[in-house]
């Protein structure tokens, strides 16, 4: 496996040792739709999902590598590992929640340096990929095979930067020339997860309760779903909860950490928060918890990495 000397090594285990080898022929760029540092991206891959990327890039240009570039990482759907043994190197980068913002100057400079190293280390050709399997450089939405049927990632602004600045910059730097200077972009404020105080926790519970009560008549299970979600968002479990329900609350807390961080940081208006919580109750938590509470099912959830 190969490790880029310009990145902090934060090795994911057991993926780094257990996932199959690849012959890297592409670099695919992503936006993670969260304003995270490389360390926070690493924690997300480790604790909250079975997916991962090779690299994580912060707004300030800081870079971490989680898996060697000759080992499969699961961020590019069919490009992760092909039947001929080739695969793509993936980079997830900090962005706003809608992945509509441009890469910062620092991010662009880091991507260009990484692109040059991948060209020199693995022979990735200095061109935009011409097909889903063609060696070269690309971004997540370039081909549907690189996602589950299509995606907007990394966003329109970053696609323009890829063609106008990043790809020309990689080619120039690899040939010993000075990369073209990117248009200045303001550096966004970094959001970090923050602890909730008692007022924050109570506000979250009241929003969930009021959302349910102001809507159509809700049965017992629907209210129980919202009640449990309020505790899960606060990082707690209801008094007297079983170990299974405590595990469930902990799992959902991890899933909604980025939303809670934005709330505490006063980045979401009350209406936007209500919208997110309502969607979470109806689309994610409701069916699973209603089934568990209604049927008395035992739920055992072991977060990845534990």
Characterization of this structure:
With 306 residues, the chain is α/β, with parallel strands linked by helices. It folds into 2 domains: 8-174, 3-Layer(aba) Sandwich (Lysozyme-like), CATH 3.40.80; 198-295, no CATH class. The protein has 9 helices and 6 strands, in the order E-H-E-H-E-E-E-H-E-H-H-H-H-H-H. It has helices at residues 15-18, 38-48, 105-122, 156-174, 198-214, 220-233, 243-255, 257-264, 270-295, and strands at 8-9, 23-31, 55-57, 63-65, 86-93, 136-139. The chain has a 6-stranded mixed beta sheet with strand order 1-4-3-5-2-6. The longest helix has 26 residues, at 270-295. It is globular. The two termini are 24 Å apart. Residues 189-193, 258-274, 281-286 and 289-306 have low confidence and may be disordered.
What key phrases describe this protein's structure?
42% helix; 6 strands; alpha/beta; 9 helices; six-stranded mixed beta sheet; Lysozyme-like
Q: What's the structural domain tally? A: 2
Q: Quote the CATH topology of the largest domain.
A: Lysozyme-like
Give the class-level CATH name of the largest domain.
Alpha Beta
H/E topology pattern: EHEHEEEHEHHHHHH
Helix content: 40-55%
Category by helix and strand content: alpha/beta
Indicate the mean pLDDT.
77
Described by the principal axes of the CA atoms, the overall outline is globular
Poorly predicted sequence stretches spanning 5 or more consecutive residues: 189-193, 258-274, 281-286, 289-306
Strand order of the largest sheet: 1-4-3-5-2-6
Main sheet: strands, sense, barrel: 6 strands, mixed
The CATH architecture designation of the largest domain is 3-Layer(aba) Sandwich
What's the alpha carbon Rg, rounded to whole Å? 21 Å
At the fourth CATH level, what is the homologous superfamily of the largest domain?
A: Peptidoglycan recognition protein-like
Number of alpha- plus pi-helical segments: 9
Distance between the termini: 24 Å
User: Count of DSSP E strands?
Assistant: 6
Beta content comes to 5-15%
